[in-house]
Amino acid sequence: MRGRLPPTIRQLLSPQYPTANLKIEVNGWVKSVRRQKNVAFAVISDGSSREGLQAVLTDRTMASKLVNGASVRLLGQLSRSPGPAQEKELQVTEVEVLGECDPDLYPIQKQNLTPDYLREHCELRARVNDMGAMLRVRDILTKAIHSYFEGQSFHCVHTPIITSNDCEGAGEAFALTPIPSSSPPVDAEPATRHFFSVPAYLTVSSQLHLEAVATSLSRVYTLSPAFRAERSQTNRHLAEFWMLEAEWQFTRSLDDICGLVEDMTKTILGAAKDDNDVHDFMGKTEGRQFIDAIDRSWSKVTYTEAVRELEKHHTSTTGSKFTFQPAWGRPLQSEHERWLADHAFRGPVFVTDYPAILKPFYMRSNEDSSNPNLCTVACFDLLIPGRGELAGGSLREERLPVLDRALEKNGLSGENYGWYRNIRKFGGAPHGGFGMGFERLLSYVTGIENVRECIAAPRWAGRILL
After folding, report:
1. 9-106 is classed in which CATH architecture?
2. I need a labelling partner for 465 at 20 to 30 A (CA). Which of 187, 254, 281, 373 fits?
């Protein structure tokens, strides 16, 4: 059939794929070669599965050019393997080396390679089993996300990467400056300070744009890149990362938002738990902990209650006090978040109703105090064991006068956010949403400690790979 690609190794190894007298073509890279007196064996991988396909070459001359890393095209017959290590093997009749590989220079050898070493060879590190498996698990989680939101009648929206505002108001955005052209078009506009006539940035979040689209489509989400100019060197931060963000109209309850986030996350985890790559990670890491989270109800506690528990632990403990003393009105540090999830609640926990002074301007005020410094907002952070914060969300402030006061308090120009005010001014409705770090989700599922190993080409302060 036209348009049909040849089967991948994953398809060939599946129980459903026939083996009787089936002549096939296999393309991939040589993972290993073992030569004996009358026969040679090669393991071929095309990245579609952790397991490679064993190729049996009874004519040893055909194996003379097979070396680790070379790309090859093999023709032969797929058959049942007599050996216990694999169910199927390829009896090779023809070999074509498509791309040679010098074994003395090839940086991806069979021995264990450190993360730092593999980052230096980022263009090839996906050929290592764990990195290839990580990318396949990313694919599984991505498909599960789209499936979940389709089932909830959300629309997938492609939001802008270039923006004129800093959604979080934290001043951690990358500013855009065009490279001057050496030969500008004849009809080009005179050069100005700003390409777009106003300052432009790489987006730190798609939330505000999703809110605008949600005023017509009701339920929207995106899985897209985000950028933050953080100098942090922790294992939880990247300068370029992927964010799952969703916004929907006509919700008045923070419980509804937390409920959807819990249901969505459990559904995604459930889609991953039976995957072979995920099982392999479980055998080597703490990835098993996410399985336990699927069948239990997740805890919920207010920020005030959480701080009370943190203070109690801090004052009653002699040997393991927190580095940062917890107190109401202070941000929860990573050590606080992990203690709450790992020890206090021993599982995922929603921390809700943070002080307004700690959160961005767009979160809906609870108006629970006449003192602005004591007022809280209808928001949550989802904390998970071993990782800390996974997601955050809130009801959005739909009341225009209250939003205006928040903009003014945060020193933000009502003129710059005129379009954002308009979606309240013209038919605005109660609404809410959340954002979830995709690499952090992947870290939770696989047990990979550092998010730099949860993305194909990581970027962080001081380094840009590829």
Report:
1. Beta Barrel (2.40)
2. 281
